[in-house]
Amino acid sequence: MKFVYLTVVLTVFSQLIVKWRVSRAGALPADWPHRLTFLFGLLCDPWILSGVISTFLAGLCWMLAMTKVELSYAYPFIGLVFVLILISSSLLFHEAVTTAKVIGVLLVIAGILVASRG
Fold it and tell me: Long-range contacts: 67-75, Cβ < 8 Å, 24+?
């Protein structure tokens, strides 16, 4: 199960880093030549690179997890990404936590609990 949890942590890290750096980069340019320059600039950002590497490592951890745990048992735990992203994005980026989001996350948690017992 440790590889499943590592997959979750690395995925959350990646998403938070990308959001942070993209938010600081500004608006996406309207025309394609400037968009490509914008995206290339993001890819050269060391923090973005750490997020890309984190996503790659999450994939490797997932493959390792699949050697030890049944997919139908492990996959619901990926739902923890939703829970951690909601909490983190609220704390770090001051994103709104709406009633609908809370209900959705509670349903995800309920689903994880049910699936992990079955």
Answer: 68/1, 68/3, 69/1, 69/3, 69/4, 72/115, 73/115, 73/116, 74/1, 74/4
List the structure tokens of 86: 């909601």
Q: Which residues contact 6 (CB under 8 A, 6 or more apart)?
A: 57, 58, 61
Which tens digits make up the pLDDT trace of 48-64? 999 999 999 999 999 99
Measured in degrees and rounded to the nearest 5, phi and psi for residue 11 equal -65, -45
The model's pTM: 0.90
Check if the beta carbon of residue 42 is closer than 8 Å to that of residue 21.
Answer: yes
Which structure tokens are listed for 65? 């997890």
Q: Using alpha carbons, select from 55, 74, 63 the residue that is nearest to residue 15.
A: 55
Domain ranges (residues) in the chain: 2-117
